[in-house]
């Protein structure tokens, strides 16, 4: 599943390439046809992501709420000589500008909603490190502190913090040295605050570059390691049994709540 930075990049792209002109809006697959008809010929006013949710605002305060889930994806292509290419696969939503096509396929959710419904979705989510508002850092600290669940699970809980997925979870906890098994309630406010700050640093880099790289250059191996390419990008993610680049202890892996969790048992306490 894409992590939050992907949705923020999509929102930026939709604003940059599609805003401010009447769009052809359709649902080649048909499942969004009625809503698409309402939007057809109108303009995108804005696009905004919160965590893994994407909201596209059209004229007349009509919003499309999208969650990609596990299989959803956007495909962008060019309009050539006034012709949009044929849709590939099951395209739920198609946006066509003068020059570009955006095709959405396989989302968990793609629905026309009101501004109130957008607000309700966001209210159920935790703060987003990619859109930090005043008080969000303290809110994150409080949400973690009041729970007895392991912090490794809390960082993946979208009602605690919106956006991080499995990679940012593993890597940010390593970088601040917190064991993923430490209970939220037993983690100091200082350390939880450091975790929030690091999520912002890592995820902003993801928005900028489009790829997740979490290892500091001075910690990365000088050359690509055969069979351990991840060591050039990550500290622990997908590096089970490989030596921790900081201390040499083999990286651990365990299935937690159905997701693979990676950590260094020496560096993280
Ligand atoms: Zn280590």
If you had to describe this structure to a student in words, what would you say it looks like?
The protein has 2 domains: 121 residues, MutM-like, N-terminal (N-terminal domain of MutM-like DNA repair proteins), CATH 3.20.190; 128 residues, Helicase, Ruva Protein, domain 3. Helix content is 29%, strand content 20%. The chain contains 7 helices and 10 strands. The strands form 3 sheets. It has a 4-stranded antiparallel beta sheet. Helix 4 packs across helix 7 and helix 6 packs across helix 7. The chain starts with a helix and ends in a 6-residue tail after the last strand. The mean pLDDT is 97. The protein binds zinc ion. The site of zinc ion has 7 residues, from loops.
Task: Give keywords.
single chain, Helicase, Ruva Protein, domain 3, 4-stranded antiparallel beta sheet
Concise synopsis of the structure shown:
The protein has 269 residues and is α+β, with helices and mostly antiparallel strands. It contains 7 helices and 10 strands.
Topology:
Layout (H helix, E strand, L loop, with lengths): L3 H15 L5 E3 L6 H7 L4 E7 L2 E6 L3 E6 L5 E6 L12 E6 L3 E6 L3 E5 L1 H10 L11 H10 L5 H4 L11 H11 L12 H21 L42 E5 L2 E5 L6
Antiparallel strand pairs: 1-6, 2-3, 3-4, 4-8, 5-7, 6-7, 9-10
Helix pairs in contact: 1-7, 4-7, 6-7
The structure holds zinc ion (ZN).
Uncertain residue ranges: none
Count every beta strand, where a strand is a DSSP E run of 2 or more residues: 10
Bound molecules: zinc ion
Measured distance between first and last alpha carbons: 28 Å
Task: Report the β-strand fraction as a percent range.
Answer: 15-25%
Helix content: 25-40%
Note the run of SSEs as H and E: HEHEEEEEEEHHHHHEE
The 3D shape can be described as globular
Q: Trace the largest sheet across and list its strands.
A: 1-6-7-5
What Rg do the Cα atoms give? 20 Å
Output the CATH class name of the largest domain.
Answer: Mainly Alpha
Compute the number of structural domains. Answer: 2
Average predicted confidence as pLDDT: 97
**What CATH architecture of the largest domain would you give?**
Orthogonal Bundle
Give the CATH topology of the largest domain: Helicase, Ruva Protein, domain 3
Count of alpha/pi helices: 7
Largest sheet: 4 strands, antiparallel
Helix/strand-derived category reads: alpha+beta
